[in-house]
Amino acid sequence: MEEPKLDEIQINNFVCPFCHHELIIHNENISCSNCNKHYTIIDGVLSFNQKDEYWCNVSREKMRQLNTIAKNSGDWLSAAKELIPEYMAHFEPFDRGDAQYLWPVSSDARILDAGSMWGGVTLPIAQHCGEIFAVDKTVETLAFLKIRAQQMGFQNVYTVASTLQKLPFPDDFFDLVILNGVLEWVAFDQPVILENHWGQKRTDDSPSYQKKPREMQVDVLLELNRILKPGGHIYVAIENSIGYQYLAGFPDDHVNLKYVSFLPRFLANAITKRKLNCDYRTYTYSLPGYRSLLKDGGYSDLEFYGAFPHYIAPSEIIPIDLIKDWKAKVLPLESPLAPIYAKFAARLFPKSLLKHVSPSFLIIGRKGQHSDNDGPRILQILQKIGLIETSSFSNIDVIKVAGREGNHHTVNFLISNKSDLKPKYFCKISRNESFAEILENEATNLETINDMLTGTDIDSSIPQLLHFGKIDGITIAVMEYIDAGNAKFDRYSDFSENDLEDLDQDITPAIAFLAKFQKYTTTRKVDAKEFLSSIIGKQKDILEKDGKLTEETISAISKLDQQIRSLNNITIPICAVHGDYDFYYNILFNNDDVKVVDLEHFETEGMPFLDLATLIFNPILMNNIFSDSELDIAQFIAKCNLNSYMNKWLHSYAELSGINIDVVKMFAKIAALEQQTKEYPYYRNPSTFPMYNQRVFHELLSFDIDI
Questions:
Q1: Are residues 533 and 651 both part of a single domain?
Q2: Same domain, 474 and 512
Q3: Which of 13, 333, 442, 684 is deepest in the core (most CB within 10 A)?
C-alpha cells in the first residue's frame, strides 16, 4: 500500500503548535509560515515532535518489526498475534469503545483521541463519527494504528505525532476530545517501555520538572479546551485514587506499588523515590478532586459515571448517583477471588458512599453553554426512533450493563426515567458494524417468537421487540425491559442441602416454562423411534468426518440406538429451541415467573431435549467444585445427592410436556450428540457451551438415570 504524498495530507487541518499560524509545504517539507519551525512525515505519520519521543508497552525495535510485517503482509492482525500476543487485548477488542454511546456527539462529529497509542479506542469510534484524529507522541504506535485503519477500511482516521501540551490544531476545531487513561501520565515526561517500567527501579536520570503534576495536567486540559468548539465536550476515563481496589490492597496501576494512590503526595513521592528511583507523578484523584481539576481546566456541567471493574473494559457503566442501587452487582462479594476481609468490609460499606470508591470514573465535561440537543448518543437514537423526546434527555438515565465480550457481541444498555424505579428499555448495539448481521438475526428471532407466543400466557415472558434498524450507521435493537432477577442458585455453590433447595426452586419453574414454550411452538409430532434413529445416523457421520468417532463413542451410540429401537408408538414434538437455555445468563426470575432473554441461537424447529439438558446440567458443569474434581458427572450427581432432584425434574417435565418418560430418560445422550454435531454460526465458539467439552460429551453419552 502506497504512503500518501505530502500534498495529499490535509494540511489545512493543522497549524503550528507553537504560534498557531498556518503551515506550508515546500520541497517535500512542512514548515510554519510564521516561526519557520520544520516538521516531518515519518512512516506516513505527520510528526510535530521536537525531540525523540517513545512511549509504548514494547521496545521500539519490536514495534518497527511489527509495522514492517503488518504492512508487507497486508494482515495486521496475524502480525500482532505473532509478535505481541500478550498485548492483543489492548487494541484488538472493540469493547474499549463501548462508552461512546454515552457521549453527546452526532454522526458527523470531529473527534480527537488524545494519547491514542495503538488505537484501541480510536477505531471503534471511527465507525460512528465524521473524522477522528489520533494523537500520540510515539510515531511507531501511530504507524501501526494507520496500517490497521487502512487495512480495516477506515478512511476517516488521521494520525498525528505530537505532545498534548502544544497541539497542532486551530482553535474551536473539535466536537469531542478523548482522554482515555492519559491524563494521569501527562506529567511524566520520560521515555517509557511499559513492560520494563511497571514496578521496576529506574536506572536512568529523571528529568528536572519545572511544574507540579497537577499544574501540568491543568495545562493539558486548557490546551484541549482551546481546540474544542464552544459547546464541545471532553471525555476522561481514569482511575479513582480511593477506589475500593486500592483500599483493599491492589497496587497502583501506574507504578505497581500499594497504597500510593491515596497517600499524601509527599509520602507517595518518598516511597517511589526509594523503591523506583523516580518521583511519583502519575496523579489520580477522588471524586471531589476531579471536579476541581476539570473546573480549573475550563469545563462545566460535569457528568460522572462509575466504571466497573475498570474503565479499560467496563462491564458496567453507572451514573454515580445510581451506584448505590447496584451494590450487589458491582461488588462481587461471593467471588472466591475476593479476600475474606474485603468481603466483610464490602458488606458493611454504606451504599450511599459507594460512588466515592468506584474503581474508576468516566467523566464528561462541556466547554461553554449547554445545548438542548445535548444528550448521550443512544438517547439521540431513541429520539429519532420516536421512543423518547429531545426535551426529556436530562430526565433519563443510561446504564451500560454486562454482556459478552468480543467484537461479535453487542453493547447493552438500560434506559430509565430518573423518577422511575425500573428501567423502561433494554437496548443492544452492534459493537462492530462488520458483524451487525448477528444482531439482525437475533432481532428476527425475537420478532418470530413474539408472533408465535402472542395470546399465550407466557408471551410477556419473552422480550417484546420495539425497534430494530440502523440509525446514523449504528445498528440497534430496542426491547421492553423485563423486570426480573438472577437465579437463587449461586455458581460458586458447594452443593450443600440449602444450595440444592435453591437449585430446585430455580429449575422447577424453568421446566414448567420450557414445557409450555415447547407446547405452544410445536409444529408437528414425529415417531420417536424413526426420527431419532435417522438423526443419530446423521450425527454419527458428522462425528466420523470430524475425527471424533472413537470406539468408546461408537459403543455408546450403539447402546443409545438400541434404547431408541425399543420405543414403539411413541411420538416427540418438533418445536422451537432456545439454544442456550441457561439460568446463569439467559433465564431470569420474578418470584415464580420465568423470563427468558437472548434469543440469538433460537431455532423455529428442533428437538426438545437440548434446552432441557442445558437447564439441568449447566449448573453442574459450570461449577468450580465439579471442574476441580476427578468425579464424572454421574458420580458427582450421586455424591451431591442430586439423584432425587433429577428424578423429580424429569418426571415433572414428562408430565408437563406430554413426552413419554422412556424418551425423557435419554435426554442427556440425545442432547450431548446434538450439542457436539450441530452447525454453529461463525461467531460462536462451540467450546463456550459446557456440554461441548469432550470429557463432558463422553460422560453424557453414557449417562443413565434410573427413573
A1: yes
A2: no
A3: 442
335-383 pLDDT tens trace: 455 556 666 666 777 888 899 999 999 999 999 877 666 799 999 999 9
- Residue 434 falls inside a structural domain: yes
Please say whether the beta carbons of 359 and 261 come within 8 A: no
- Tell me how many domains the chain contains: 4
Does position 283 have pLDDT exceeding 80, yes or no? yes
For residues 535 and 588, what is the distance between their CA atoms, to the nearest angstrom? Answer: 32
Which residues, 6+ apart, have CB-to-CB distance to 537 below 8 Å? none
CA separation for the pair 670, 626 (Å, rounded): 22
Same domain, 399 and 339: no
User: Cell for 431?
Assistant: 459493537
Q: How far is 698 from 693, CA to CA, in rounded Å?
A: 9
CATH of the domain at 423: 3.30.200.20
Q: How far apart are CA 202 and CA 216, in angstroms?
A: 22
Q: Quick check: 649 and 500 in contact, CB under 8 A?
A: no
Q: Are 473 and 526 part of one and the same domain?
A: no
Whether 99 and 17 map to the same domain: the answer is no
Strand duo 157-161 + 45-47: pairing: parallel
Q: Is 445 exposed, middle or buried (0-12, 13-18, 19+ CB in 10 A)?
A: buried
Q: Report residue 67: phi and psi, to 5°.
A: -65, -40
Helix crossing, 551-565 with 667-677: angle to 10°? 130
Q: Do the beta carbons of residue 30 and residue 23 sit within 8 Å?
A: yes
In a domain? residue 258: yes
Whether the full predicted model's pTM is greater than 0.85, yes or no, is yes
Question: DSSP label at 313?
Answer: S
The answer on 228 and 79 residing in a single domain is yes
Q: Which domain holds residue 535?
A: 497-701
- pLDDT band at residue 7 using 50, 70 and 90 as cut-offs: very low
- Examine the pLDDT at 333 and tell me if it is beyond 90: no
Helix (H, G, I), strand (E, B) or coil at 187: coil
Cβ neighbors of 579 (< 8 A, separation 6 or more) are 599, 600, 601, 602, 603, 610, 611
Which of 2, 147, 106 has the alpha carbon at shortest distance from 122?
147
Interstrand relation of 157-161 and 131-136 (parallel, antiparallel or unpaired):
parallel
Same domain, residue pair 318 and 335: yes
d(CA 148, CA 135): 15
- Asked if the structure places residue 319 within a domain, the reply is yes
Q: What is the DSSP letter of 629?
A: S
